[in-house]
Amino acid sequence: EVQLVESGGGWLQAGGSLRLSCTASGLTSSDYSIVWFRQPLGKEREGVACLRTMDGKTEYLDSVKGRFTISNDKFKNPVYLQSDSVKPEDTGVYYCALDVGYRCVLGSTGPGDLSMEAWEAWGKGTLVVVST
User: Fold this and answer.
1) CB atoms within 10 A of CB 31
2) CA separation for the pair 11, 34 (Å, rounded)
3) Strand partners of residue 3
């Protein structure tokens, strides 16, 4: 059973830096996609960034392009979500999810299918609060 654990959330000031980690265990494939979703309080979930580990292909939500980077070191665990310029609108609970193969299709709500059933595993989430 694949399990995901997020870490790195907390309270930030606008313009500050963010680094979230998503660590997977129980992996049985080397070709999988990891997506970071976020859900602001009272708002809909959206896909923020997605990475396919086999080839490093990435997709981003338009509002975070140029500010957020999803990466992993030499296609290994963990997968990071980083920013050097967070904004108050980046506030929310951030979740990572994983599934085998290429799952980073970009839509109007960002990369990845928003339904939980579409992914093999989900983390429990980590809260990020960005203040002005």
Assistant:
1) 12
2) 24
3) 25
